[in-house]
Write a structure and sequence with these properties.
The protein is α/β, with parallel strands linked by helices. The chain has 9 helices and 9 strands. α1 links the parallel β1 and β2. The radius of gyration is 18 Å and the shape is globular.
Length: 245
Amino acid sequence: MTDQPVLILGGRSDIGLAIAHRYADLGHTVQLAARNAQSLSQEKTDMELRYGVTVSLHDFDVLAPDTHEAFLDGLPALPQIAVCAVGYMGDQAESQRDPAAATLVMRSNFEGPANILALLANLFEARGSGTLIGISSVAGDRGRATNYVYGAAKAGFTAFLSGLRNRLAGRGVHVLTVLPGFVATRMTEGLDLPEKLTTDPETLAVAVARAAEKRRNVIYVKGVWAVVMLVIRNIPEAIFKKLSI
């Protein structure tokens, strides 16, 4: 059993729970953080019985940055690994009509996650060790008409993680950016996802833990998305603006 605690921000999400299970299976203490965290008591008991590790529950609201410092102070221990799996896709059409809806998407995917990871980065840097993992998205690689509000927020988060990684290089703190494509979760339920480009939360969790162990900087999940997004990023703007993708 390892004595390295893992903090999962967004512990209620399918991706967050899958990553929590993966790290628990590897013997880590798990700190599950989410709104109304006590409602995750069944998941906590399941992981403790299944893997023989300690799991703690912590109330966390990514949209309340004024509470983030107190949240971190209340953890039983400063984690060695922190994973931000917070995300909210929203609806592009609604975001176009309602600025408040667009703001919610941007705050949920960029402002809140960046704020909590910035605080953790300072604590990790002072300690001289730690791993920060941000679940971003391929949607941030280029703005597309069908999801540009969500994509813009993820683009900001990806850039933030890149800058954080650059700043913390040589200071004992590693930053991993995870860029999933389609993931079969409750958030994407009802969407017609292409099977060859879609992964599941459990496969993603394995890829995340492996990449963190190898100290990778950026990973695409599935790997084919690296090629797909390379092509999309390099489509000339005159052609790209005529496409509906």
